[in-house]
Amino acid sequence: MTAHVNITRGENALRDIKEWLARVAQVVAPPVLRIALAVPFFKSGLTKWDGFLSLSPAAEYLFEDEFKLHLFGQAYDFPLPTAFAFLDGIAEIVLPVLLIIGLATRFSALGLLVMTGVIQLVVPEGWANFHLPWAGLALALIALGPGPLSLDHLLEKLPRPWS
């Protein structure tokens, strides 16, 4: 009888620990995922600007001369390279900031997932070290959402006067 009671206590303790870990992970994991995805894109975005909405010459050069889209075994120039450089620079600043504060989290993660896909077309050899982890982080955020430590969560709790 004593052995059965000890096994039951051990099972209950293990269940309690698992439940506690799940509750902690639900709070901690989303912001960690948001930060992990935001940092590399934000750092890259900082290199694209020489001031407020002043695209750096290096960013323009990359999109005009260096970056090529690798499709069907061929390398193609970016269409409208200055426009793409400008949009990329804005997205690499705005989307990570939105992720960090947890606002429009799923939309921001989707935007960075699309950017990761484009980056994969430009730098196909980077899939294992960079693109796959970024895609995994973005997909996790799209699936899990922003978590309770986010502006999205706070806004969900506000009363809606039109409801």
What does this structure look like?
This protein is mostly helical. The chain is about 75% helix and about 10% strand. It is built from 6 helices and 4 strands; from the N terminus they run αββαββαααα. Strands 1-2 form a two-stranded antiparallel sheet. The protein has a two-stranded antiparallel sheet with strand order 3-4. A hairpin with a 2-residue loop joins strand 3 and strand 4. Helix 1 (about 1-45) packs across helix 5 (about 125-145) and helix 4 runs antiparallel to helix 5 (about 125-145). The longest helix has about 45 residues, at about 1-45. It is elongated.
Radius of gyration: 22 Å
Number of strands: 4
Residues in helices, as a percent range: over 70%
> How far is the first residue's CA from the last residue's CA?
58 Å
Q: What is the N-to-C succession of helices and strands?
A: HEEHEEHHHH
Tell me the strand percentage band: 5-15%
* Rounded average pLDDT: 94
Shape: elongated
- The quaternary organization reads as single chain
Low-pLDDT segments: none
Let me know the largest β-sheet.
2 strands, antiparallel
The helix-and-strand class reads: mainly alpha
Summed up, the helix count is 6
